[in-house]
């Protein structure tokens, strides 16, 4: 955006600044009305803030201001985490993110072990997972999907930005046991059951 922002862009900026949560285009329209080109105003503001201490970013169709990535360490504070995600919760979150919408039975089929009810509760309390309706199948099981807060927390614009298996391997985020099993199964085409603790941390 060249020069000073117009009144519509200023209204968009004010609405985003005052909001305590990311806003969708529809929510922004409720604040600023129909009197301007909203996508153009957002693009201009994002460009204006690109090199500053805070940036205007879009995550999962919602816009918000956040601290510039290279300055996040300045604001980081030591705090006691009331609850850490267990391995079971992390695996469940990953399955939902990569396969959503997905039912509990489908999660269990992929993990190879039963999913404790508390696992999904923890993810929903964190705001990263939500019910997404019911599967049109016998029993109409509840299905789950990730939320915009999940995308925002992990710095993803959309699920297309989720890392692939090669990215995870290169980053050293795959468990050595999982890697060994993956290599073994690549030659046999077999399947295995993951037998890890499902107890919540």
From TrEMBL:
It holds the Pfam family SMC_ScpB. The keyword Zinc does not apply. Keywords: Cell cycle, Cell division, Chromosome partition, Cytoplasm. One of its GO terms (biological process) is cell division. InterPro entries: ScpB_csome_segregation, WH-like_DNA-bd_sf, WH_DNA-bd_sf. SUPFAM superfamilies: Winged helix' DNA-binding domain. It comes from the Bacteria. This is Segregation and condensation protein B. It comes from Sphingobium fontiphilum.
């Amino acid at each position: 955006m060249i020069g000073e922002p117009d009144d519509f862009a200023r209204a968009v900026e004010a609405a985003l600044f005052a909001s305590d949560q990311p806003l969708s285009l529809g929510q922004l329209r409720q604040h600023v009305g129909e009197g301007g080109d909203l996508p153009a105003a957002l693009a201009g503001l994002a460009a204006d803030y690109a090199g500053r201490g805070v940036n205007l970013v879009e995550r999962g169709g919602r816009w918000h201001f956040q601290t510039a990535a290279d300055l996040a360490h300045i604001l980081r504070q030591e705090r006691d985490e009331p609850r850490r995600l267990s391995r079971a919760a992390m695996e469940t979150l990953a399955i939902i993110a990569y396969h959503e919408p997905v039912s509990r039975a489908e999660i269990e089929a992929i993990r190879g072990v039963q999913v404790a009810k508390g696992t999904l509760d923890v993810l929903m309390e964190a705001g990263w997972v939500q019910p997404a309706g019911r599967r049109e199948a016998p029993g109409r099981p509840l299905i789950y999907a990730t939320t915009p807060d999940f995308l925002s927390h992990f710095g993803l614009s959309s699920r297309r930005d989720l890392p692939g298996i090669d990215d995870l391997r290169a980053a050293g985020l795959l468990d050595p046991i999982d890697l060994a099993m993956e290599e073994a199964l690549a030659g046999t085409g077999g399947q295995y059951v993951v037998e890890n603790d499902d107890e919540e941390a």
